[in-house]
Amino acid sequence: IINNILLAKKYGLKTKEKDIIFESNTLLSSIYMDEKNYSEAEKMLSEAINYYEKETPKNFYSLYNLYEIRADLFSKINILPKSYADLQKSIENYKQLTDEKQMEYANLLEAKFDAKNKEEKISLLEEKNQKQLLFNILLFAFMVLLLARTYFLYRNYRIKIKLKEEIVQKQYLEQQKLKTEQEFAKLKTEHMQKELMANTLQIERKNEV
Known about the structure:
By secondary structure, the chain is mainly alpha-helical. The protein is 91% helix and 0% strand. The protein is rod-shaped.
């Protein structure tokens, strides 16, 4: 928020928009006071007062408000002589507002201030909504990526399990095939041995006859 107000103030100084300068310094001093940064708050108020004191004709309405705010600031930090002096200045400027034209200007300035304040609040709300929308989009994208990653990890896991099962099945079939071949070779060897023994017995019998 402070950065946005500083940008607005910079624009006001560049274009010499008095209302923007007044509003920017007043808002900044208010923010700094809330943060108890009284030195910066005083700096903003003094800067605005110096600016309006050099104006011709003087803007008594703005000076009346600025002196009153700075008097309140000095009172908070117990600099009572300066607080009293600013109150006197505030009263002097308020007396000048009895001029009809100055009063009209004051009302117009207050109306402009209220309008700009509302516009700023609307702008801040729109910015907040845009940030929320961006956050929601990023969150949705993150969830989609997370789901996609989970899906691919699960798919790869299933593929690995399937390949492992196929390898185990293949190894089992190869073992069964080898076992069958070994048994077949054993049976064949036994059969050949029996035939050899039978032939040997026949030869022995013939020899005996």
